[in-house]
Amino acid sequence: MPNPYSGGPDRSMIDLVGGDGGEINPAIYVDEDIYRRELEQVFGRSWLFLAHGSQIPETGDFVSTYMGEDPVLVVRQKDGSVVAFLNQCRHRGMRICRTDCGKARSFTCSYHGWAYDISGRLVHVPLEQEAYHGEIDKDAWGPVRVPRIASFRNLIFGCWDEAAPDLETYIGDAAWYMDVMFDRSGAGSELISGVHKWVIPCNWKLAAEQFASDMYHAPYSHLSAVLASLPDDASPADADWPQEGAQFRAPRFGHGTGFFASERGWEFNVNTMGRTIVDYLAGKYSDAAVQHLGELRGRQITGQHMTIFPNFSFLPGINALRVWHPRGPQEMEVWSMILVDSDAPDEVKAAYRDRITRMFGTSGIFEQDDGENWVEVQRVLRGHKTRQTSLNASMGKGHTEDRSEYPGIVSGMFSEEAARGFYQHWARMMAGQSWEELAQEPASACGKPDSGS
Amino acid sequence: MNNRIDVETAREVEEFLFDEAALLDDGHFDEWLALFAPDIRYFVPVRTTRSARERDKEFSGTAELAHFDDDYEGLKTRIRRLATGFAWAEDPPSRTRHFVSNIRLRALENDEFEVTSNTLVYRSRLERQVDMFSGKRVDRLRRSGGGGKFEIAARTVYLDHTLILTNSISIFF
């Protein structure tokens, strides 16, 4: 399709993020045209998280979710595979299924009664002979299928773009870091049943980028939750977070993570997460993880935040995961879940449910303050001058480190290297670059100036 | 109203709930916490949109994800947070108004009562944020200490929302 930004000299999208992602034009958070292009170029082409396999264990189990703003149904098939299709009837466009989740034998549109089987095949049209004279080609008029579905560690992803690389290539080096959470024991993982869903009036990128790259906000934004969790006889100095750590920027495709890495393990967080979870992560229950992932990933990496581009984020160890669904440039829906290892002891699973719900999710004492920041960032951008005022994402530019223990591009844990990776990849997608071009590591990822794309 | 409960008791329960709401709206959170029994379970399940056939699965169960599932310590942690000076989502504080109505009582054993009420919570925040929460509360009230005063031994709040239409639930129901 014609695209004014594709391949030509027009660098306007790249310029919006200062070339290398280090200086942000706030238009990317508010502009309606940019948003429509984002739905097409970013959400229409990237691998997007759809569901965790444990949400739909049996034939006909489904969840209703979104790819960008497009509603899709994700359904378990008889043969165990997963199919996803647009939640839109092909007759007059009515939403086929209006519930959040459930078990279906079929899906029947409430408007005129067109009925689809669980794989999305149109199987029944009322008055097919009388009204359509038997001439409607039912095979041609099923809801649009998501052409590509793939799983990584039981995380089901979908992608509209036939030209995108396979999921494994897309995730790339980020897999090593994801496994801290999703392959801790080798026994697989499951969700604690239920999804927190809420609305934050802010652009989705503020959240996705923070989870990719921002350890910097944690000691200040979340100070109240840390202080409130200290025992009665403790002093604020006891809220002593590790000082060592690193940040990872995916060489391509925009993913990022950062974390503490310390021999103290999770002990620093025992007051917020509780003894049971800390023992699970770094104490008496952690030998199997160390055996499976090694000492560094099995015990020492803590406080990790991570985003798989564009909108799937999680906190390994804390095991909160979420999708930031875009709802216009000024709003998003947060869908938040909690994951546990399938082979974790029951008391550990219960502790995750109890403690992490208190920390993260709709009422989470850590979560609340994130929302507060993003909402105000967004509200300030109603102004004329504020929209002309560029924002600084230069932290740690040119200071990547040579750390052989970590894959990918690595910097100090207080850095915006991964944020620049996120925004630069976003801009290149928005500019309409092909997947061949996107697979090329941008020169500026290593701190050198971008020679142009 | 159950006719086994005398008017005076009903009036007392009503007054207790109204006083409780006033403590929240006036920001007296320590006094509010003092109304709860040490074995309190403060539970706000997640609601999902389900077909009529699966309506019994609307609310999350006690082993599933909840908006709140706090014991006394959990509530205390939330309230301590408000006093740290760094609780950005509540500093400046939300302005709330708790409306409690449709109160129904049922006598339980051991001088306990099940009290069901409707709650409508209006929240105004900063310049122009306005949120409304609507729900059904089911409380278990207990006469404590012999002084005749009530304490809240259990509270479940069934919200009328599936998607929560605000950036956080930093207040209490």
List keywords for this structure.
heterodimer, A: 453 residues, alpha+beta, Rieske Iron-sulfur Protein, Naphthalene 1,2-dioxygenase Alpha Subunit, Chain A, domain 1, 2 domains, 9-stranded antiparallel beta sheet, 4-stranded antiparallel beta sheet, 21 strands, 29% helix, 22% strand, globular, disordered N terminus, disordered C terminus, B: 173 residues, Nuclear Transport Factor 2, Chain: A, 6-stranded mixed beta sheet, 3 helices
Report mean pLDDT of chain B, rounded to a whole number. Answer: 94
Main structural class of chain B: alpha+beta
CATH architectural label of chain B? Roll
Number of domains of chain B: 1
Report the helical percentage of chain A: 25-40%
Count every beta strand of chain B, where a strand is a DSSP E run of 2 or more residues: 6
Give me the number of helical elements of chain A: 16
Main pleated-sheet profile of chain A: 9 strands, antiparallel
H/E element sequence of chain B: HHEEHEEEE
CATH topology of the largest domain in chain A, by name, is Naphthalene 1,2-dioxygenase Alpha Subunit, Chain A, domain 1
Largest interface: A-B, 47 and 43 residues
Mind explaining what this structure looks like?
The complex is a heterodimer of chains A (453) and B (173). With 453 residues, chain A is α+β, with helices and mostly antiparallel strands. Helix content of chain A is 29%, strand content 22%. In chain A, a hairpin with a 2-residue loop joins strand 3 (61-67) and strand 4 (70-76). The radius of gyration of chain A is 23 Å and the shape is globular. Chain B has one domain (7-159): Nuclear Transport Factor 2, Chain: A. A 6-stranded mixed sheet of chain B has the order 2-1-6-5-4-3.
